[in-house]
Amino acid sequence: MPRTPMFSEPLHVGRPNVGDRQRLLERINGALDRLWLSNNGPLVAELEERVTTLTGARHCVALSNATTGIQLAARACGIRQGQEVVVPAFTWIASPHALEWAGLVPVFCDVDEETATADPQSVEELIGPRTGGILGVHVYGRPCRVTELAKVADRHGLPLLFDAAHAFGSTYQQQPLGGFGSAEIFSFHATKYINSFEGGALVTNDDEVAAKVRAMRNLGLSPDRDIVSAGTNGRMSEISAAMGLVSMDIMDDLIEVNMRNELWYREGLAGLPGVTVRSQAPKERANHQYLVLEIDAAASGVHRDTVHETLYAHNVFSRRYFYPGCHQSEPYVHAPAVHAPVPLPHTEALSTRVLALPTGSAVGEAEIAGVCDLIRTTLAG
Ligand code: T4K
């Protein structure tokens, strides 16, 4: 193993993909000329229109971020303070924190290891008199088992929401995500496939949910400026919308880049025992925004954390998305009877194996070959 880091410049997971700068600056200049910078401006309206076209859903409400979107969605669907929401433990902490911060009680279900998304049977086991809803998460952009979750939700008369933070551009049964359940919430954070610096969008086919969220993101004001509900500030700025639109212009190119990177990783790691690159759903379109390895310590002879530490020493800043499981994180870890009443073996197993590696437009063949070499050398001991 060389003593000096293999990379002099850090390689990050989640490097933003920046579209056409000239186009971005033109759009920003347009906003500056119009002196209309926020509060449902024309760029936000254009972004919403673009998202409804891309997803085929009836409504899109652009938002300041996905975390706020989850809170607005839960409220618009009538989930009341103090009610429980079943959510997978294998997700970014934003999913349960959004609920907790809104006065709801996250109750963690397990995931199935193939999709890394909510196991419908585990969801059903957790439904009881205090349950107010279900929040599935399309982890790494791979869709949940939507049909089965919808059946569980219908059986119990519960709203089904999807945290689609990772999943813009992905499909389920060849239909774009966005129109499933009562609402789906995308993230356009800087690290996401489509980025608007900070941002998100709630997408729904439900007219009432859309109208409620549209008002609630602007302190409960209706389009006629009547105060129709409580609300918060969940607005997207025009600058963010400009970035989001420019980012959407290169959607297909980005998928190509991500898929090409994935191929290079697969070639570079081929034949390594206990090391697999996680796959997207067969026959579906996916954004391939996350490149995630699974390292099985027993089969590879090396723990995921050793690989992670070695990569760090060489300026490759891999991420353990998602470790630890949310049930093992603050504040939920202190109240397992409330938040984690059933065993979560698949979450716990996955969270010790996964490692996200750099992909997107910031890395190319040479960097990926270097990262794969580092992993091979680490496994060779
Ligand atoms: N639900 C799920 C399932 C989510 O994964 C997320 C967010 C949400 C909900 C909530 O969505 P938002 O409310 O954010 O819209 C990062 C992202 O900040 C976060 O958005 C994302 N999930 C999560 C999985 O990853 P951190 O704490 O790891 O971020 P940070 O700042 O350490 O950056 C991650 C990597 O990206 C680093 O390697 C540095 C690099 N980076 C980051 C930024 C911001 C850059 O190179 N440039 C940048 O501008 O959470």
UniProtKB/TrEMBL annotation:
It comes from the Bacteria. The keyword Transferase applies. One of its GO terms (molecular function) is transaminase activity. SUPFAM superfamilies: PLP-dependent transferases. InterPro entries: DegT/StrS_aminotransferase (IPR000653), PyrdxlP-dep_Trfase (IPR015424), PyrdxlP-dep_Trfase_major (IPR015421), PyrdxlP-dep_Trfase_small (IPR015422). CDD domains: AHBA_syn. Belongs to the DegT/DnrJ/EryC1 family. PANTHER family: PROTEIN RV3402C, TRANSAMINASE. This is Aminotransferase class I/II-fold pyridoxal phosphate-dependent enzyme.
